[in-house]
Design goal:
2 strands; elongated; two-stranded antiparallel sheet; binds zinc ion; 2 domains; 7 helices
């Protein structure tokens, strides 16, 4: 769910605002601008949505935005799951997942990924998760994977 930022209004609109409404609008802009500068809100360059930090994957290979990968989780998942629209069903392949991990400079660990496809940890009937999402949760949270890069991939 994108974060709501102050809307850009046409100059003519501003000229017609009373002092109270203008003050309120300046406060809104001030709040939005501060959130952006302090990276409480990040605008994803892919979908253009302003999102809160928790909507971005932690990535120690990108020392910007407090180690967050700048493309939002939703866009990364869409690419890995071969979806054009949000409503399309996930259709991920090993290749599409590897492409996204390569782009993010994150490791592809075959055994870990396959465990989420067919192993004991495979997503059951839940449709809010896919092997890619489970994989990202695991390599993002377990210390042994957190700082690995694409170079550390294990393909068999
Ligand atoms: Zn996005």
């Amino acid at each position: 769910m994108p974060v709501k930022l102050a809307e850009i209004r046409p100059q003519q609109d501003l000229d017609n605002l009373g002092i109270v409404a203008l003050k309120k609008y300046v406060n809104e802009i001030n709040k939005s601008y501060r959130a952006l500068l302090q990276h409480e809100v990040i605008i994803c360059p892919m979908c253009g949505n302003p999102e809160s930090k928790k909507m971005f994957y932690i990535n120690y290979n990108f020392p910007i935005f407090d180690n967050l990968y700048p493309i939002c989780k939703s866009c990364c998942c869409k690419m890995a799951e071969n979806r054009k629209k949000d409503s399309d069903p996930p259709n991920e392949t090993v290749e599409s997942v590897m492409q996204v991990l390569h782009m993010m400079n994150r490791p592809f660990i075959y055994s870990v990924y396959m465990n989420f496809c067919t192993g004991i940890d495979a997503p059951k009937t839940r449709n809010d998760t896919t092997p890619f999402r489970s994989y990202m949760r695991t390599v993002g949270s377990l210390p042994q994977y957190q700082r690995l890069t694409w170079k550390d991939s294990v393909f068999d």
